[in-house]
Amino acid sequence: MLLKKAPDLRYSDITPKKLYLRRREFIAGSAALAAGALVSGAKATALFSPGAGGQSTPAAGGPAPRLIIASRDNLAGDEKITPIEDTTGYTNFYEFSTAKRDPTNLARDLRTRPWAVAIEGLVKRPLSFEVDDLLRMFPIEERVYRWRCVEAWSMVIPWDGFPLADFIKKCEPAPQAKFVEFTTLYDPKQMPMQNDRLLQWPYVEGLRLDEAMHPLALLAVGMYGEPLPPQNGAPLRLVVPWKYGFKSIKSVVKVSFVDKMPKTAWSRENPEEYGFYANVNPNVSHPRWSQAKERRMGESGKRPTLMFNGYQDQVESLYAGMNLRKNY
């Protein structure tokens, strides 16, 4: 089987992009390996023009859509996809370390197969999905998204995954469900920082159901056309591009549908600094630093932070009438 089990997996021999995007061969291992090139920013902006709701449609004479960009205007002319060495070598994964360069090595032996995702709470019936079944179940798309960390650094990342909304529909939540709660794997033997009291483990995050159903919200299984490396949240993580990075929970093992706002990891630990909504807002400073500017990985100097991380036109209607200073 081309997808190796985690103890044997090395980043250098992860399945190439062309094979990965052909889901059935990626799971069954029935196709020959093919070399794949990394996605470039020029390719991303050239092939597609924006459609409604953050989706993209083919440019005139272009191929059928596969690479999805939130909007043509969201990637400015000076923006480039961040090198994979930066996005995989500089991460926040506190289950392994508080140092951003350490999870690359500390998480490399995380066992990601078998991996089940439990569906609980206000649903038609409790379910459990194997992650490989999800790969078979949903078409894998590529989406190039800005990525903004609350510590004022940012990246541009091509994610591979499927819409969270499609997954939610498959779960059949009850009408009473108003929020979606996500939980990370709890395994202190594999995740050494879970023996520490830094947070109340396991890590929990949540979205309002209408946020979760937005077409930009993604369940990612890969990046740069390759399966997610452990330090980036293998085998399944959330990606919510208009919010700060801590909302996009890694290594998900449980999804619960609830009628009350979940008590999420950072808002529970330090509510004065980390609110439930976590929308990127340059006008609301973190208590210990300004959020008005950010440093793009690989660049010198800083650039202005964009409201909702540049996705304002697509998502601001979700928060109509809300005080975005109070609901940070």
Reconstruct the topology from this structure.
Elements: H1 17-20, H2 23-28, H3 41-47, E1 48-50, E2 56-58, E3 67-69, H4 84-89, H5 103-106, E4 116-121, E5 127-130, H6 131-137, E6 141-148, E7 153-163, H7 164-171, E8 179-184, E9 204-208, H8 209-212, E10 218-223, E11 226-227, E12 237-239, E13 252-258, H9 265-269, E14 293-296, E15 303-304, H10 312-315
Parallel strand pairs: 3-6, 4-13, 7-14
Antiparallel strand pairs: 1-2, 4-5, 6-7, 7-10, 8-9, 8-13, 10-11, 10-12, 14-15
Compact summary:
By secondary structure, the chain is α+β, with helices and mostly antiparallel strands.
Which tags fit this structure?
328 residues; alpha+beta; Sulfite Oxidase, Chain A, domain 2; single chain; 5-stranded mixed beta sheet; 17% helix; 10 helices; disordered N terminus
Protein described:
There is one protein chain. The protein is of the alpha+beta class and 328 residues long. It has a single domain (6-319), classed as Sulfite Oxidase, Chain A, domain 2 (Alpha-Beta Complex), CATH 3.90.420. Helix content is 17%, strand content 22%. The chain has helices at 17-20, 23-28, 41-47, 84-89, 103-106, 131-137, 164-171, 209-212, 265-269, 312-315, and strands spanning 48-50, 56-58, 67-69, 116-121, 127-130, 141-148, 153-163, 179-184, 204-208, 218-223, 226-227, 237-239, 252-258, 293-296, 303-304. Strands 3, 6, 7, 10, 11, 12, 14 and 15 form an eight-stranded mixed beta sheet that branches. The protein has a five-stranded mixed beta sheet with strand order 5-4-13-8-9. A two-stranded antiparallel sheet has the order 1-2. A hairpin with a 5-residue loop joins strand 4 and strand 5. The chain is globular. The chain starts with 16 loop residues before the first helix and ends in a 13-residue tail after the last helix. The model is unreliable at 1-68 (pLDDT under 50).
